[in-house]
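wait is this the right file?? whatever heres the structure
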């Protein structure tokens, strides 16, 4: 987008916050005298007025043809002009104020406005905008409100527009909710009025250039080294794995980590709604589904992509998340020579994972008898790894269960590892993922892959911790 366009979009908002300011020359002395005595709120609003005014002058002075993709250069120009405007208007600010003002203005012109500092803060994993004045973030797994606000609904809408416009998308009354992505890969969901009754709502799941590693998970206490060793063996031995858990429980993160165990000489095809996985292997093909366009055409579903992958000679198929009819195609792929496939399912427990898969398979509309579906599931899925978001904000693998066959009409599952709760103290959840003492039935597959796991991993023989 050219600077001119951005200015056109930006200027309206700048005015939105400038009610009654009008660039009066007495402004500065007002600011200075108020700074000493006025309450914080007043100083904040004065600074906001000043920001609007300086921003407007700056926008008027900047070359509209400037290519704002050259961020560093534009930033330098903005800084020069910024200093010039402050000097011309004889505005004196303390060093931190000057810094804050410049960053806020740069964020409006180049970035995502008030969201920019939150996006840049690596401690923040999620950002939730509930209308212009209520902004929450997730830090270290905990939700907290932050003292960041937009001017009004309009201001939020302008930033939303900045997010979706480069993607050729639109959010308006006729399509009031949309999934999008920031240039850095962060996942964004937007819902606006009239669907949302609290103003425009933006939810951002931040994307980390350096994703969590298996060592991070062990350090956080999310999983034990023994369980990791077991899961690594399962991936290498081409078992079919379903990772399950609630929203934000860390399913995608774990899928990414388990995928890292796939040998480098295999052809991996990933299918996702919004590409979140970051595989390190060289031979990876990434496919992304697509929602319908404004005329309601051109949709490409996960299901269509899963079917298509079968014609792409995959060694492994990794589906970011199954939520519907694609469950059937995924099961068929797992059953027909694409062993070692992995996916995630939203569920409350390992057993619930299987019943969700059953329901999703029914959504394919093939009118298959339930027993046939269960047989498909039991022969396709080898392992369910269930993860939870605990009440202290930590994420933990709470169960690793083998899908061991059918007993009558029921799929049988065997817990191999279970999280033993050790209580809740000082705001922290204690406990450990413990082997149950049972060996999986599929041990022969692991052995056949040339991997030897000591019995102690399963809590057999040696002392249990
Ligand atoms: N083991 C972990 N310890 C701490 N934080 C984690 C862990 N796993 C994931 N996270 C963080 O939790 C957030 C959610 O992770 P992730 O996207 O993997 O969850 P999800 O279950 O796939 O979510 P969704 O249901 O929305 O797809 C991310 O910010 C991620 O960095
Ligand atoms: Mg996910």
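ok assuming it is, sequence goes like this
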């Amino acid at each position: 987008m050219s600077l001119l366009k951005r200015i056109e979009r930006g200027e309206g908002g700048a005015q939105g916050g400038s009610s009654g300011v009008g660039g009066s020359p007495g402004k500065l002395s007002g600011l200075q005298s108020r700074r000493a005595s006025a309450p914080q709120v007043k100083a904040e609003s004065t600074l906001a007025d000043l920001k609007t005014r300086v921003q407007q002058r700056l926008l008027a002075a900047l070359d509209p043809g400037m290519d704002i993709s050259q961020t560093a250069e534009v930033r330098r120009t903005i800084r020069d002009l910024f200093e010039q405007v402050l000097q011309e208007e004889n505005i004196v600010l303390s060093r931190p104020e000057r810094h804050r003002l410049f960053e806020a203005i740069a964020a409006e012109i180049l970035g995502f406005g008030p969201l920019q500092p939150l996006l840049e803060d690596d401690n923040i994993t999620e950002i939730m905008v509930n209308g212009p004045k209520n902004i929450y973030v997730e830090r270290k797994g905990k939700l907290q409100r932050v003292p960041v606000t937009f001017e009004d609904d309009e201001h939020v809408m302008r930033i939303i527009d900045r997010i979706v416009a480069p993607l050729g998308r639109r959010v308006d009354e006729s399509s009031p909710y949309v999934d999008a992505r920031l240039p850095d890969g962060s996942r964004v969901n937007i819902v606006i009025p009239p669907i949302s009754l609290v103003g425009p709502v933006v939810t951002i799941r931040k994307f980390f250039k350096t994703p969590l590693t298996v060592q991070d998970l062990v350090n956080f206490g999310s999983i034990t080294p023994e369980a990791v060793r077991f899961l690594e063996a399962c991936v290498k031995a081409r078992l079919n794995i379903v990772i399950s858990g609630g929203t934000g429980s860390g399913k995608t993160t774990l899928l990414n980590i388990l995928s890292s165990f796939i040998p480098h000489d295999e052809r991996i095809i990933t299918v996702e709604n919004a590409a979140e996985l970051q595989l390190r292997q060289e031979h990876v093909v990434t496919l992304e589904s697509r929602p319908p366009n404004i005329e309601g055409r051109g949709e490409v579903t996960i299901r269509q992509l899963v079917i298509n992958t079968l014609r792409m000679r995959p060694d492994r198929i990794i589906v970011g998340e199954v939520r519907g009819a694609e469950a059937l195609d995924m099961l068929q792929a797992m059953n027909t020579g694409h062993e070692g496939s992995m996916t995630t399912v939203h569920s409350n427990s390992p057993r619930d994972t299987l019943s969700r898969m059953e329901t999703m398979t029914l959504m394919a509309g093939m009118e298959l008898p339930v027993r046939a579906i269960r047989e498909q599931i039991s022969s396709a899925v080898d392992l369910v790894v269930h993860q939870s978001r605990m009440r202290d904000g930590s994420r933990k693998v709470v169960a690793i269960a083998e899908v061991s066959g059918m007993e009558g009409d029921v799929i049988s599952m065997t817990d191999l590892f279970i999280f033993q709760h050790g209580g809740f103290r000082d705001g922290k959840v204690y406990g450990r993922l413990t082997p149950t003492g049972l060996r999986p039935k599929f041990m022969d597959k692991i052995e056949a892959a040339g991997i030897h796991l000591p019995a102690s991993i399963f809590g057999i023989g040696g002392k249990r911790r």
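The CA atoms of residues 350 and 447 lie 25 Å apart. so i think its the right one actually
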